[in-house]
Amino acid sequence: MRSTMQDFPLTLTSIMRFGVDVCGDSEVVTWTGDGSRRRSYAELGERAARLAGALRALGVDGDQRVATFMWNNAEHLEAYLAVPCMGAVLHTLNIRLFADQLVYIANHAEDQIVIVDGSLIPLLAPILPQLKTVRHVLVVGEADTAPLADAGKELHSYEDLLAAAPATFDWPELDERSAAAMCYTSGTTGNPKGVVYSHRSAYLHSMSICSANAMGISATDRVLPVVPMFHANSWGLPYGALMAGASLVMPDRHLQAEPLVRLIEAERPTVAGAVPTIWADVLRHVKENGADLSSLRIVPCGGSAVPESLMRGFDEIGVRIVHAWGMTETSPVASMAHPPAGAEGEDAWRARISQGRVLSGLEMRVVGDEDKVLPSDGEAVGEIEIRGPWITGSYYKDEDPEKFHDGWLRTGDVGTVTPDGFLNLSDRAKDVIKSGGEWISSVELENHLMAHPDVLEAAVVGVPDDRWQERPLATVVVREGAAVTARQLKEFLTGLIPKWQLPERWSFIEAVPKTSVGKFDKKVLRRQYAEGELDVQRVD
Ligand code: AMP
Questions:
Q1: Which residue minimizes the CA distance to atom 7 of ligand 1?
Q2: Relative to the CA of 68, which of 35, 97, 491, 502 has its CA 20 to 30 Å away?
Q3: Is 39 helix (H, G, I), strand (E, B) or coil?
Q4: CA 510 – ligand 1 centroid, Å
Q5: Please, which pLDDT band fits residue 188 given cuts at 50, 70 and 90?
Q6: Residue 394 and residue 96: Cα distance in Å, rounded?
Q7: Global pTM?
Q8: Average pLDDT rounded to a whole number, residues 254-276
Q9: Which domain-ending residue is among 251, 268, 294?
């Protein structure tokens, strides 16, 4: 029997129409440091139409790539709508990557246009001459464009182009499976790989994050994406907010704890997403200076494991962190950690500190040696594989068959899945420490260490060991004004983890090196150790 339902495509255009037409009074707010700029979604819709018209006039056609080199702000949101909805492909460039990686990525994606925030011109200028396919650069805001002048590209003022373009655009009918946006993985080894989202995948991901098992976003919410719009589409928060008609509060370049707290107090967001390091800074700031974060009803947090101490610290100030897991390849949100019905006390906490329950529509499994599928019994440890309509099935122009397994994505994350779908990660496959044939979870050690009151940050990596092949090295950043010794920390860990897992190598460092998206960069720590740059003490 054939269904009688209309075959209506799932596109970002449909999300845009609801946001700007039905919820035209909602707004996008951009923080300026001491105040806010505001634009209604109705205005946003008109400006997106003008941008699409301007891009078309510059020759953007078909699925050409339009890159952004921008902070989280209203103009970036305009590109988020205009570019995919005109049929082109939005390519968000990560402003924190090293120059050679950016050059590689922009050339690999064959970007035609770059839209750049004026404040980021100094970062773009040195690489622009090497971006072979880029023809035009659109500069947002008042800025000195002189550093871009000799790159052989046509420069335009974003506002002038918008002013000259028509106020409406004839949005094309799009195939839901066509490419809408792309993002390169922030992987710390090899060249970054391109993930291409379709309209359909972005639509389904938006519906999923708006659902109550995820973030439950509705038209009464005000959503603050702190996570950059160049990192996995800011966890899909912008499209999710538009789909729900929720307003967006954008931090622009003000990402330190103090301005963020002022922004939260002034604009009273209800949902705010950021990685654990940002929230740890915010918590410290709030504890030292006090602040009113009571507008926040949910803080989705992920990107790396959220320490339990951070969640408990937020509970104490009345803000609920909900742990989420995902990756660029999974659009990115794939699981969120809400306790199941009836779970209370420690049971609820067990669920909350897990990486969460798989979202409806996706499937997860645990795979062991020789690609053997292991039971999802909460005990069997293996690599997590995932599949579903917003999980990538390949990389752009890169054959990488070892990342896929019978239609499943190999995540590179190691852990267990419970029968009721809760994921507990113990490590990245490459970060697991193998000591005398037994696995030590670097993440577990880090979480225990970061629960110590004197420890600000801790990262644990495996280092070569003659006897055990590999042993953990604990690198620790001590809180300002605190004094703690390696021996005391080792004693603190005793009883929390098996004795054989206790690190004997310790190093006190100024700060844990971070990747372009704020994760601990363990590759750098391993290199520093190998080259003798770390001051290592032994506590046997
Ligand atoms: P990215 O593609 O940059 O978002 O990185 C994805 C990777 O970040 C995942 O494969 C995990 O290793 C890590 N990650 C993301 N969320 C979490 C989490 N909640 N807990 C632990 N690791 C996480």
A1: 327
A2: 35
A3: strand
A4: 24
A5: low
A6: 25
A7: 0.90
A8: 97
A9: 251
